[in-house]
């Protein structure tokens, strides 16, 4: 069987002003043909998993960028054109496995993933197409209609990408006859409430597992979605592909999700309270466990498209007299200044440069360790084997600890980015993680405690702060949702009056 594999992967934060051009994709993941196989075979990625299941798959094109602002029209169109040209040249194909994030927003293209699948469908004809989606996907009916199977991640922090890629490939190979149902609940949830091992997602995923174990059920996804992509597809998505009763099963699963909506709440501390709590935890001494306290800077979540140069936690660390922290900051200008200046010690104003929201910058002085360019392969559970380019790096020994300044944005999906610059993260007193939950795949194994910090940024846990323009309304918890807004739920008594 000739199964084509490829995709375009981007999680778009519509509130980030800087658009994402083709250079951001070329700098992250951009492969075609044999290069795609060389780059992804054996990795813990969706297409790595698909290659395990279909060893002689036909590689097409795959482009991915780190989550960031809206994708430029010409970048999206260039990648889609490349994918289409290579798909046409590979004909005849017996099926497609596509790795699409599912929360992309592209200028001039209102539903990019549906357009990708629709374009390729017109080329390959009525052969099975399976699409892998991130846990943070916002799939719409056009995507579900164009694809034969949707297969969403079941983990957050994400660790099952290769399994989902293999599952998608197996569905294409078997191509069972199914009906599918995609439901969108008017439920907005911030990432900090979506961890798969914690409630309410633990129970929701268990319900999905039970459904998947029923005979004739071939694909089930429960996707909490990405609240920072401002579009009419926002919400919590439930997808079922089954030989019979797909719609009824999806409705029952959606009712299960809806009944747990009140549990999607995040508790955050302001930066000074958070640092005080972290200092108290450290002062408890060795009896209370070892390892760093993680200060989770949720609103400057690099994996959610935020820039990664927010200074709110750093100012609090400095104000509270904390020492031995490690914080990564995206600051290409400071890196350039550090590399251009002579001497062992420097004074720099770092961070807070991308927007006033992320500042003000903080002045640091100390010994500097210049490195780079630094590249490494992820060794942990997130996209194991994926190559990452940090650009040049400057590590400054500041009063509060090590400030790791990077030329490229670096997400805390692993801890290899610290080891790559000679830092042993287990030995830090405090780690500042610019993420919500994803940092757990890197630091979760040895962190003694996590404190979630309410910082300014583009991924606030308080979604009421966001200037939405295109999302549907009403949505829980921002508005009151009545039973008329949930016509597909099988038992209206679950909907209370008011909130
Ligand atoms: Zn995600």
From TrEMBL:
Microcystin LR degradation protein MlrC N-terminal domain boundaries: 2-279
InterPro entries from the UniProt entry: MlrC (IPR009197), MlrC_C (IPR010799), MlrC_N (IPR015995)
Residues covered by the Microcystin LR degradation protein MlrC C-terminal domain: 295-469
Name listed for the protein in its UniProt record: M81 family metallopeptidase
TM annotation in the entry: none
């Amino acid at each position: 069987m000739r199964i084509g594999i490829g995709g375009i992967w981007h999680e778009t934060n519509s509130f980030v002003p800087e658009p994402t051009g083709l250079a951001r994709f070329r700098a992250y993941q951009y492969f075609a043909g044999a290069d795609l196989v060389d780059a992804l075979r054996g990795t813990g990625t969706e297409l790595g998993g698909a290659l395990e299941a279909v060893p002689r798959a036909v590689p097409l094109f795959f482009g991915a960028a780190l989550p960031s602002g809206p994708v430029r029209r010409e970048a999206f169109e260039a990648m889609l054109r490349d994918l289409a040209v290579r798909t046409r040249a590979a004909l005849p194909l017996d099926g497609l496995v596509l790795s699409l994030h599912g929360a992309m927003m592209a200028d001039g293209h209102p539903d990019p993933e549906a357009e990708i699948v629709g374009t390729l469908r017109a080329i390959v004809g009525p052969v099975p197409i399976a699409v892998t989606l991130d846990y943070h996907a916002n799939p719409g009916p056009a995507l579900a209609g164009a694809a034969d199977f949707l297969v969403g991640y079941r983990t957050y922090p994400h660790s099952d990408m290769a399994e989902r890629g293999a599952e998608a490939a197996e569905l294409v190979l078997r191509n069972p006859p199914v009906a599918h149902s995609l439901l969108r609940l008017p439920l907005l949830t911030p990432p900090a409430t979506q961890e798969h091992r914690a409630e309410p997602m633990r129970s929701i995923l268990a319900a999905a597992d039970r459904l998947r174990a029923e005979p004739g059920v071939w694909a089930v996804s429960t996707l909490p979605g990405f609240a920072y992509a401002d579009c009419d597809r926002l919400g919590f998505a439930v997808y079922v592909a089954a030989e019979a009763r797909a719609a009824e099963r999806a409705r029952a699963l959606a009712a299960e999700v809806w009944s747990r909506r009140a549990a999607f709440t995040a508790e955050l501390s302001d930066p000074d309270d958070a640092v005080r709590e972290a200092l108290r935890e450290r002062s408890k001494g060795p009896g209370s466990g070892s390892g760093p306290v993680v200060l989770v800077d949720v609103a400057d979540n690099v994996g959610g498209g935020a820039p990664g140069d927010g200074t709110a936690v750093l100012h609090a660390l400095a104000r509270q007299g904390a020492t031995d922290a490690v914080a990564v900051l995206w600051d290409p200008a400071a890196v350039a200044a550090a590399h251009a200046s002579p001497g062992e010690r420097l004074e720099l104003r770092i961070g807070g440069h991308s927007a006033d929201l992320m500042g003000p910058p903080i002045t640091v002085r100390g010994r500097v360790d210049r490195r780079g360019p630094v590249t490494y392969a992820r060794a942990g559970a997130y996209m194991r084997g994926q190559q990452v380019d940090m650009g040049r790096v400057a590590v400054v020994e500041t009063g509060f600890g090590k400030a790791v300044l990077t030329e490229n944005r670096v997400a805390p999906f692993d801890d290899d980015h610290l080891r790559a610059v000679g830092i042993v993260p287990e030995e830090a007193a405090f780690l500042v993680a610019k993420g919500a939950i994803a940092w757990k795949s890197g630091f979760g194994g040895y962190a003694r405690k996590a404190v979630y910090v309410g910082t300014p940024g583009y991924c606030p846990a308080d979604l009421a702060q966001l200037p939405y323009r295109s999302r549907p309304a009403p949505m829980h918890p921002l508005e009151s949702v009545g039973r008329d807004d949930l016509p597909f739920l099988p038992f209206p008594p679950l909907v209370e009056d008011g909130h």
